[in-house]
Amino acid sequence: MRTGTITGDLVRWYEAARRDLPWRLDSDPYRIWVSEVMLQQTRVEAVIPYFERFMGRFPTLDSLAAADGDEVDKFWEGLGYYSRARNLHSAVREVCERYEGTVPASYDDFRSLPGVGDYTAGAVLSIAYNQPLPAVDGNVLRVIARLFAIPDDVMSQKTRKTVVGIVSGLLPVGRASAFNQALMELGALLCMPKSPHCAECPVAHHCAARQRGLQTSLPVRARKSAPKDVHLTAVLAQTADDGSILVRRRPARGLLAGLWEIPNWAAPEPNSVDLETTVLSAARSQALSNMEPLRGRRLEEMHCLGQYTHTFSHRRWIMSVYHAQVDARSHCREPYRWVDRQERTMYTFGQVFNKIFREHLAQ
DNA sequence: GAGCCGTGGCA
DNA sequence: TTGCCAAGGCT
Description:
By secondary structure, the protein is of the alpha+beta class.
């Protein structure tokens, strides 16, 4: 293998090995921006179908700016980290108002938009405009930590700054786009977390970790704390006449902010020793007191649909789900709403609720 | 700095 | 089953 500088070897490899991804068809800064936001903490394979669908509906920055927020949510449904969609939506509206619809090339201007941090600002401006800015994500932290055998926790701000400095020093003027993408592509295709493919790596001969046999023990990352258990009771109320269900909008801030849900509440102390009938009657009385639209009504029939466990990044829901039948829709106000099967598909739910729908409601 | 904020794949 | 991970940002 012909060898040169890290930068040269990396860019040469990238030109040959780069994947054809939908956001690499051109250098439209809007498309690249959307892709970068979707890719935050999310795998490429998961993003591709979402990106295609999103760009089909919102092909231009203006079309996204003009869209209704609830519709944007619907196109994000299932991707997670929903504040990304809200921030992106609000940011493109700001670009329309303040920059005449053109993604600002100024780092300070672009970086100040909601949802745009150091990484995203560097990535979009380098990839779309070829600006010589570092774009340090998880891939780059790993690749650089190995190439330079950095033994420190890569999650710390200090180490991150070190890596930013190293990348800045390697950045080739005029090839920033290819270089930044090359670092990330290397992390995704060869320099992977578990078993790096060093034999195929274009910069293995530059790699301090490989020389010292440290390639699988680097980078060092602090361990994340385990998600905390939350016990919930949820009631899927449904009318006997047309099968409408009662849904509720979640608060604008916090977990699954602004999305819709099957009404639920903190379960009283979980006591598995209780008889089923005791638990069921408790859920019934809670449903009647906690769900405002059901207050003073009669539940025709109620039974347990099962227990659903859903793990978020920092929390685990253990949710007992009940089905309650009522004769017809009752009066209801926000945040509650009765929706029929067709209307339901227009609302955005967290995946745990969609799973319950899939398993218990006719599609 | 540390906690919050989703999801699905995989060992 | 559990833990780890994947192109982070906000408070």
